Amino acid sequence: MIHQYAMRPLRFQPIYQTRVWGGRQLETVFGRKLPDDQPYGESWELCDRPEAQSIVADGPLAGKSLHQLWTKHRAAVFGEKHRDHPAKHFPILLKILDCSDVLSLQVHPPAAIASTLGGEPKTEMWFVVKADRRAQIYAGLRQGATRERFAAALNDGTVADLVHSITPHPGEFMLVESGRLHALGAGLLVYEIQQNSDTTYRVFDWNRVGLDGKPRALHVAESLACIDFDDFAPAMQTPATDGRMVQRGHGVLAGEDVRAGEFMILPAEHMIWPLTALENDLEWLEIKLPS
User: Fold this and answer.
1) Positions of CATH 2.60.120.10 in the chain
2) CATH assignment, 4-226
């Protein structure tokens, strides 16, 4: 049982991941202290996976893992309506992505075939925090692309000609359903909200090498089995104007200082969390578990 005194906004220790396409914006934009001088492409902010556990950073629950909260204190932290949720692990994974270079062209497996490929289904959403003027998002296919043309283009190096590209702007988002071909371009800082899965199939990696100097593995057969070849020219969207994850500005939430780039869980036992804006441009996002 978690006592009421412990019911406060919960911050977690970030889990930093180096990536060949990463950079230093976690440091320069959000003021984070990174472990070393390597390119950091991802910060896993809320994660309940066997290989990566988010840990409460401070307060009465400091040291508890997200998995412990989900399995031992689910009703108090996440609400009575999730008491009987079938997921054994917290069902979503929240990240910050620093894309200093373009990511691989990739796809995540749809639920209908994920298990046959030995993976997990994964649908995700990108929310654009920052975008350079020339930054692009690659998603879906251009009109006229087919599976046969795509497979041939992989062989002759012209696959980029068949991928739909979009110029994104801060504040926009895109839902990337499993099966959608996609890649984030260089010059983007993105919040990613995704199913709790780490299955990604790379179909093309722009002919580059990884941090170890070797080409990264491709999964062409798996990708071709997963790509939705009827997914043409998707567009960016604009979210509703409410939420709780601070995107920019500075405020106070239930006595806690909140600033850009911070992620929190607001325990369900407190139904109303007073948020006071200290800056006129305070914006935040709210992410709720599906019922």
Assistant:
1) 4-226
2) 2.60.120.10
